[in-house]
Write a structure and sequence with these properties.
Length: 350
């Protein structure tokens, strides 16, 4: 059994390495012109280096390789997570340096999802929502593969969409992977817990520089990879350890609800939904006069509530449906409150 002292010391070392490496990357980004220049669709001002997520992603992958080499992690864990994560990270890194075609980006993300699902082995059980929650609706393995691929690709993109306020995406990871790692730990999945917490520690180190007013943004390399890993952890936990994927939907509710509902509304209003915008609820909250730090305080409070709901659902699995409804109600009330403060524009952007 891994000692608490080992975990504490290892976490401290990783945290300090992340804190120390981010300014080194920032210097590199400044020298290469890898900059996010504020415009009318931005929620920040001035010029800020981007792509800082490369630091925590590379460190996480190095930790995964070292852990597998030393026997801390099983080799199949390395083969399951690493290929898809590398591909998504490369796509994000390229997008931070150059503007990639949306079609190429989508093809690459889909390929990463299929590589990950293939590495899991044969997926022919209707595990998704199989605990009596409409599992019978998924009648064919190919449909399940399609749904899981869509889930991964959407998670990659929605996390990217929601990375628009200083510290917001970083805080989200602390909650989703922090609480998700705890659920792994108490469910007899210590390896997955360590992988989750390793990322939490590294992102916490990055957050030192990403806290309002941010000195650096994580960029596409960070947001793509984190969105991919959230979906990957949710799927692996369900397949290998019978942890309902619905628990992750509760933890992740703040991000997927805002991103999905905003996208659907933009499509309904016949807006150019694929272009950059400031229509997400967290962006409109900022437009209503709340500072980045105040938006973080509000969303952190929501995440605390969602974390409590997810943990309650884990300890009382028979109440999972009610927990999903409660989580949906919490984020719906928040969204409606923001809508009253700053309604989503319905005009087609110029």
């Amino acid at each position: 059994m891994i000692s608490k002292l080992f975990l504490l010391c290892g976490s401290l070392v990783l945290y300090l390495i992340a804190v120390g490496m981010v300014p080194l990357y920032r210097r590199y980004a400044m020298s290469r012109g890898i900059l996010d220049i504020a415009n009318h669709r931005s929620s920040h001002e001035g010029v800020t280096p981007r792509g800082g997520g490369l630091v925590f992603m590379v460190l996480w992958m190095i930790a995964l390789v070292i852990g597998a080499w030393s026997g801390l992690f099983a080799r199949p864990m390395l083969l399951t997570f690493l290929p898809g994560t590398i591909l998504v990270g490369v796509l994000g890194y390229w997008d931070d340096h150059h503007h990639m075609s949306p079609k190429i980006r989508l093809v690459g993300q889909t390929l990463a999802a299929l590589i990950f699902l293939t590495a899991l082995g044969k997926i022919d059980t209707l595990y998704l929502l199989h605990r009596g929650i409409a599992g019978h609706l998924i009648a064919h393995p190919w449909l399940l593969w399609s749904l899981l691929t869509l889930f991964i690709v959407w998670s990659i993109n929605l996390f990217n969409f929601m990375d628009g306020i200083d510290g917001l995406a970083s805080i989200e990871i602390l909650f989703v992977l922090g609480v998700g790692g705890f659920i792994f730990w108490i469910s007899g999945a210590p390896t997955l817990a360590l992988l989750s917490w390793t990322m939490v520690v590294l992102v916490a180190g990055f957050l030192v520089w990403n806290w309002p007013k941010a000195d650096i943004f994580m960029g596409d390399v960070g947001s793509y990879s984190l969105g991919f890993l959230i979906a990957a952890f949710a799927i692996v936990g369900d397949i290998w350890y019978d942890i309902p994927i619905a628990l992750w939907l509760i933890l992740y509710a703040l991000f997927w609800f805002d991103a999905t509902l905003t996208l659907l509304r933009r499509i309904y209003f016949k807006q150019h939904w694929a272009t950059a915008h400031r229509d997400h609820a967290y962006q409109r909250l900022h437009q209503a006069g709340y500072s980045h730090a105040q938006v973080l305080a509000i969303t952190t409070t929501l995440n605390i509530v969602l974390a409590g709901v997810a943990l309650s659902a884990h300890y009382y699995p028979s109440k999972l449906i009610w927990a999903l409804c409660l989580a949906g109600g919490v984020v719906s009330i928040w969204y409606l409150w923001v809508e009253r403060l700053a309604p989503q524009k319905v005009s087609v952007p110029g």
